[in-house]
């Protein structure tokens, strides 16, 4: 997997080392280490973006109606958010150092171009950290509405953090805001670099995905509890609040996915061709589901005639560029990008149908679907949403290969030339194992703790 931004990283450490060739083994180690770090951190980042919205809604509902169950949910979710934020800060810090230590060719050359979004993300991170402290410490110490308002900056800063870092990754896909003279970067326009053509589709797609992950993952926990017989109002409310939020975003994400595909057709046709396994430029290009790239063609795929042309240009006669227009050395690996793309799209439509099932039942009876199959599918929806996000980042990062800065800098030229990067990969992998075990242990202990507060405070009108 290539490199890119992870929402929640603090400050990029641009350690400039002399450029030079790295061994193939060290390049693989650096890419694997970055892949593990990003893949691990992005889950925490999604929860950090979406969970504040859930607990603020629950607390607002409790203050407005005096609902004790809503207040108990808000308090429990707040504790979980605090734990996840602390762990996410650790993984974000690791990513910050990895950007400089593993990729000096990128940061040494282009650090001044993409430094602005990372600096702004650092500010957003500290705002988020400060107000999380105020919010957690302020329970029962602040008036209810003041306490609720103290959580609003947490939500805003979390979304802003994701936005700023994803703009840096978007720049890697559409590098603008500078000129190169005599091999040196000059005339840097950092705001233009941050608001590059890839920024709208990538940031919208990622932020909506974060709310979906947080909603479906939280709802999945309560779906499991309900399958085990806990059908009381507390658990039903704990399911409905996050699932409703995720369900609202599901159709929006499908539309944003279509927007992103059309963007790729215009700005990164090689990535779209790899995602669809399209080797030949053609009109009436088919939409391919499944299959593997073998000897320059996609085999064993299910083809929908004219599907890709209709997706890109709303016409079966639309010409779609294939990989035959891309030099062999510049082509991304087709099979992993294509399968990741299919996985992301397939899960997206699964979550959309599950959301429609929920909306239909609620519209008819103001109740959850009565089938246990709905709860079974809802129980796995959180894992499915996480898999979709990970698959989406594989498409984004591996689909950009062999470039770390699209059309400008190859990944092999950006990697640290110092030998022994496998040692760092092993050490960082062990760190993430420890973090995973510790996080799961703490969250499980919190889930088993006695529930607190059976009533919600209300302020006089």
UniProtKB/TrEMBL annotation:
Localization terms from the record: Cell membrane
UniProt keyword annotation of Membrane present: yes
Superkingdom assignment: Bacteria
Coiled-coil features, chain-numbered ranges: none
UniProt cross-references to InterPro entries, sorted A to Z: Cyt-d_ubiquinol_oxidase_su_1
GO biological process: aerobic electron transport chain
Recorded topology in the membrane: Multi-pass membrane protein
Keywords from the named record: Cell membrane, Electron transport, Heme, Iron, Membrane, Metal-binding, Signal, Transmembrane, Transmembrane helix, Transport
Transmembrane intervals: 40-60, 81-102, 114-136, 148-172, 204-225, 237-256, 339-361, 373-395, 421-443
GO cellular component, one term: cytochrome complex
PANTHER family per the UniProt record, alphabetical: CYTOCHROME BD MENAQUINOL OXIDASE SUBUNIT I-RELATED, CYTOCHROME D UBIQUINOL OXIDASE
Protein name: Cytochrome d ubiquinol oxidase, subunit I
Protein's organism: Streptosporangium roseum (strain ATCC 12428 / DSM 43021 / JCM 3005 / KCTC 9067 / NCIMB 10171 / NRRL 2505 / NI 9100)
